[in-house]
Design a protein that fits this description.
CATH architecture: Beta Barrel
GO biological process, one term: fatty acid catabolic process
Strand content: 25-35%
Largest sheet: 12 strands, antiparallel
Bound molecules: propionyl Coenzyme A
Number of domains: 1
Strand order of the largest sheet: 1-2-4-5-6-3-9-12-11-10-8-7
Radius of gyration: 20 Å
Subcellular location: Peroxisome matrix
Keywords: Fatty acid metabolism, Hydrolase, Lipid metabolism, Peroxisome, Peroxisome biogenesis, Serine esterase
Distance between the termini: 61 Å
Number of helices: 6
Catalytic activity: dodecanoyl-CoA + H2O = dodecanoate + CoA + H(+); choloyl-CoA + H2O = cholate + CoA + H(+); decanedioyl-CoA + H2O = decanedioate + CoA + H(+); 2-methyloctadecanoyl-CoA + H2O = 2-methyloctadecanoate + CoA + H(+)
Enzyme class: hydrolase
């Protein structure tokens, strides 16, 4: 098969004829999209995403050895898995040629990450091939691995085999509220219990570097069983810009671990997680995309059992192109919730 070196730094917005870069037909834009999408970036360029300036900006210590620091730490006080995966992919990508782009990664979270110390990333150059290049990355704290990750990079190649699922039909992000706006709405309800208020205010104080607009607003305190499926629009806070697909893949790796495992619990309103953590995470990158533009994250959980749950995610560009897919298993140990609804 003929190899074609393309410039993957090309603009996503430069796509024409309703095809993605690989020539895959994509859903035409809806009239709403045409009117709501502005050619002007949503963020001024001086408001750079903290994901780029800090979280994924690793410090080089030696050849193939990097140090990463933390930005947002979840309430569990263990490092966010997406941050570790994103940083591991940054470290891996630093040693591959300009023409190679991440196409997949496979990781195990073997120990909880400690938010009190930085993480070291040690890269092993497993193989350099003509069209595929593989890296192994160990994320280390206190002298022990917390994550082991294999990442594979591919030089773009043409193929007549091109298909993808169709993006679910959902309202555009402009018609939906952010999580913060939804919380403010809840907080304005009369007779809201004090502990519910405190819980919601804690959520507001989170400095998560991504913005989320749920397609179906979450029931913060009233719980009904739903199918194990959720959809939300997501983008990095701040400006990243087009042109650096390697970086956008690292941001997507960060984003992809967010809220995915929670899908497992949706059919069980009478149970709350007393311990949950992602055990492994795999991801495949399919097309070019911009993580500082709204993308639809479709999360499903096809299985749960034995205190574990499987969750799968699809990240869609808003023009209907499937940008990335991921899969993860997590440990989910639950307790029965007996107290009545707080609203
Ligand atoms: C958004 C999702 C995320 O970002 S999660 C963050 C990324 N993922 C991670 O940090 C996971 C990292 N990996 C790990 O921490 C370990 O591999 C884990 C999954 C904990 C290994 O589990 P395990 O071998 O059970 O660990 P452990 O013995 O240290 O126990 C941890 C806590 O679980 C408890 N535990 C243990 N076994 C049981 C059991 N059979 N039934 C009930 N509880 C059990 C332990 O007591 C311990 O609890 P505690 O932490 O002491 O409160």
């Amino acid at each position: 098969m003929a190899e074609k070196e393309e410039d993957p730094n090309h603009s996503v917005s430069g796509l024409t004829n309703n095809c993605n870069t690989a020539g895959v037909p994509v859903s035409p834009k809806s009239p709403e999209d045409e009117t709501s999408e502005s050619p002007v970036p949503q963020y001024a360029q001086d408001l750079k995403s903290v994901l780029v300036t800090s979280v994924l900006n690793l410090e080089k210590l030696d050849v193939d050895l990097y140090r990463g620091t933390h930005h947002w730490v979840p309430r569990t006080q263990r490092l966010f898995g997406g941050q570790i995966v994103g940083q591991a992919l940054v470290a891996a990508a630093k040693s591959v040629g300009d023409n190679f782009y991440a196409h997949s990664l496979h990781c195990y979270f073997v120990r909880a990450g400690d938010p009190k110390v930085p993480v070291l990333y040690q890269v092993e150059r497993t193989r350099d091939g003509r069209s595929f290049t593989v890296r192994s990355v160990k994320a280390i704290q206190h002298g022990q691995p917390i994550l082991i990750c294999q990442a594979s990079f591919h030089m773009q190649q043409e193929s007549p085999l091109q298909h993808q699922f169709t993006m679910p039909t959902v309202p555009p992000p402009e018609d939906l509220l952010t999580v913060e706006e939804l919380i403010h709405l809840y907080l304005s309800k009369p007779n809201l219990a004090e502990n519910a208020k405190q819980g919601l205010n804690k959520l507001l104080a989170n400095e998560v570097p991504i913005e989320i607009k749920p397609v179906n607003p979450p029931q913060f305190y009233r719980r009904d069983a739903t199918e194990p499926k959720k959809l939300f629009w997501v983008r990095a806070r701040g400006y990243i810009g087009e042109g650096n697909m390697k970086l956008h893949c690292c941001v997507a790796a960060y984003v992809s671990d967010f809220a995915l495992l929670g899908t497992v619990l949706l059919p069980y309103p009478n149970y709350r997680a007393k311990f949950s953590a992602s055990l492994d995470h795999a991801m495949w990158f399919h097309s070019t995309f911009r993580t500082d533009e709204w993308m639809l994250y479709e999360c499903v959980s096809p299985w749960a059992g034995g205190s574990r749950g499987l969750a799968q995610g699809r990240l869609w560009r808003r023009d209907g192109v499937l940008a990335a897919s991921c899969s993860q298993e997590g440990v989910v140990r639950v307790k029965l919730v007996t107290e009545p609804s707080k609203l």
